[in-house]
Input
Amino acid sequence: MRTSLILACFFVTTTIAAAADIDKTVLVEAEGFDSLGGWVVDQQYMDQMGSPVLLAHGLGTPVEDAVASVEIPSAGKYRVWVRTRDWTAPWKTPDPPGRFRLLVGGKPLKATFGTEGEKWHWQSGGSVKLEAGKLQLALRDLTGFNGRCDAIILSADESFSPPNSLDELNALRREKLGLPATPPNAGEFDIVVVGGGMAGTCTAISSARLGLRVALIQNRPVLGGNNSSEVRVHLNGKTAQEPYPALGGIVKELDSGHRGNAQEAFEYDDDKKLRIVRAEKNISLFLNTHAYAVEKQGNRIVAVLARNIRTNRELRFPAQLFADCTGDGNLGHLAGADFRYGRESRQETGEKLAPKKADRQTMGTSVQWYAAKTDQPSLFPDCPWAVRFNEQTCQRTTRGDWDWENGFFRDQVDEAEYIRDYGLRVVFGNWAYLKNHAGDKRKYERMKLDWVAYVGGKRESRRLLGDVVLKQQDIVSARAFPDASVTTTWTIDLHYPKQPDGFTDEPFRSIAVHKRIKPYPIPYRCLYSRNVENLMMAGRNISVTHVALGTIRVMRTGGMMGEVLGMAASICKKKNGNPRGVYQNHMDDLKKLMAEGVGESPE
Output
């Protein structure tokens, strides 16, 4: 059978029309710098713009230099290019805040980067004379306000201009990085789990404990997703519920025991999650690894292709089964799985909470934050490029919780950078007003901005469609499905934008509208794709309507879904079947495993 390869945008090969003499050109990927200093790797929008980037997230204090050592092939005059952007340009603001310099051999270039262009592009840095051999490059942040650098090019060919077209740029990257046409296999696996949040981590552990060889692919350096120190949302939903009270044992093992959002990093216990996963001999863990493509035969996935976001090394992950636990449904999207985005109409679903007309509105992304007390008065700069506040609109608080939420009317996948950046402009603008202009600014004199998330906490984007699409009336009327599995206990919790009085920019605050439910078991048929034969899913991207998503999206519930996926995967291996076949032919086997559980008692 013919095998097809489906690629995300950043690895399409094409002719490098812009390259006159590629051998005279040196490409340096910023995420691969030897020392990141105070810069952080940000991969959240790499599918849209082509690459991970370095981000200077200093909360108004310039971060330590990132440093790299590169090899210059021959002495001569080199033109310098830096791929970057003015991240506040979409709002046409003054004084771009993401300014940084490039030091070449210890000397800063005259150009200041991050000052022009709304889109990602190559900004010229002029020319320098270089000797052959080792050369040190350094990125020097000037503001602490989220300057960003994708890559650097040094070219001795004066006719060469680096391409802005993603196809041409990706081809250039592949050639200069020496990436093979076919990545080597990472191993032989029974199941590949993409996404290392609570749902994916529980899927991997459950599968491993039931004897499967597992690859767990996570594109961040930590596990836990929204429950990690990067986003800082506590676990919600209840475990140990009828009809399968043994479900939730793995969730309990991973739970830090702390509650509360936007708290100190230790409360989310990233290390505990890593220890538990690494203790499983059947799990091969791949952190900092982003899935960018799939290979398919017919309606089956054959392998996932993934790239390390620090080293650029690519690997191929073949398996019989695949689990999409990405939240955004990224794996399913790559594989051509049916999905839904936005809100269904009331006429289509019959749901009382659905809008009259279908639209693309979603629940938003939160950028949480908090301030800390200081012994001495602390300063914070004015931010003329940030969202503007006044005595009426400013939020008089020292902490931003889940309800600092935006992006309701934007695409949560394709506009992820814009949505996160707007959240940053809100936080910095509000804090600058409180510190410098508020009538009660003395109240904040001995407070400093201590933590602001740069990884957005998403609630909703793509929902992959299964053999059952769960609806509000199924839950409220307690419709009995023969494949009842994970029990959801959270309210139908739907978020809507709420503007502060007098505020005219995009909404950044939200309200939650709750409809209480009785505990309800979700059909297993919501946990696998209806048109990709060997694809399962767990977490907020399962087969539900927008309204039903309101109850199933919390993380303890998602973690239990992962436990069930591991059980179903073990049956698929034993019976040489697929996820749909578990429902059709082996439901009793799945019920037995759900009754037994795979973790410690969740009671």
Observations:
- The two ends are 49 Å apart (CA to CA).
